[in-house]
Amino acid sequence: MLNQTCRDFIDALASREPVPGGGGASALAGAVGMALGSMVGELTVGKKQYEEYDTEISELLFRSQELIHRFEELVEEDAKAFLPLSEAYRMPKSTPEETAARESAIQAALVTAAEAPLEIAETCLKALRILDSFSLIGSRMAVSDAGTGAAICLAALKGARLNVLVNLRLMKDKEKRKELSDKIDAVTDSGIHLAEMTYARVEKACSE
Questions:
Q1: N or C: which end of the chain has fewer CB atoms below 10 A?
Q2: Is 0.90 topped by the overall pTM?
Q3: What is the pLDDT at residue 4?
Q4: What dihedral do alpha carbons 134, 140, 146, 148 form, nearest 10°?
Q5: What is the pLDDT of residue 1?
Q6: Which pLDDT band holds residue 31 (cuts at 50, 70, 90)?
């Protein structure tokens, strides 16, 4: 999907096709937010004013690139995870046997469909931690980009959360539903706290 132009991807999002959807859009947004963090790092590393942070910035840049790549993979993986659910909903249900088979397929597909956006949310949290570090030690000339990246990654995390929840509400396996629900709640709480802290710091720095 990422080999398309931006316009083609947006057109696909706006179409009646089931994928890409909210999960893929969230993963792409996460990549954009993390890329802004990388830009802060690139504008900082090697500068005499920030040479004491060169080793740390280089490590942050390496981790940023890893996460950007993972986000790109998750755009594709989210689409692949949703397709079995879409296909399960189209299964016949004319007889009790068909209805049972359809329901079994739906329940299995719901788990996969929820796990993909959960990983997107978890990856957003990792990105937010890196962006927070960039906001602390990155070039003051580019600090606004760290804050912008944090705002975008928080939006991506919240979008991914909704795509987890919409699948959990139909999940009949209560144990699995609670497991995934607890995970997305913890990730969301941590992400909101971190993003708001980073954004406030950057907003103050931009206003002084």
A1: C
A2: yes
A3: 79
A4: 170
A5: 66
A6: very high
Q: How confident is the model at residue 9 (pLDDT cuts 50, 70, 90)?
A: confident
pLDDT of residue 37: 98
| Reduced 3-state DSSP string for the chain | CCCCCHHHHHHHHCCCCCCCCHHHHHHHHHHHHHHHHHHHHHCCCCCHHHHHHHHHHHHHHHHHHHHHHHHHHHHHHHHHHHHHHHHHHCCCCCCHHHHHHHHHHHHHHHHHHHHHHHHHHHHHHHHHHHHHHHHHHCCHHHHHHHHHHHHHHHHHHHHHHHHHHHHHCCCCCHHHHHHHHHHHHHHHHHHHHHHHHHHHHHHHHHHC
Residue with tokens 């602390």: 136
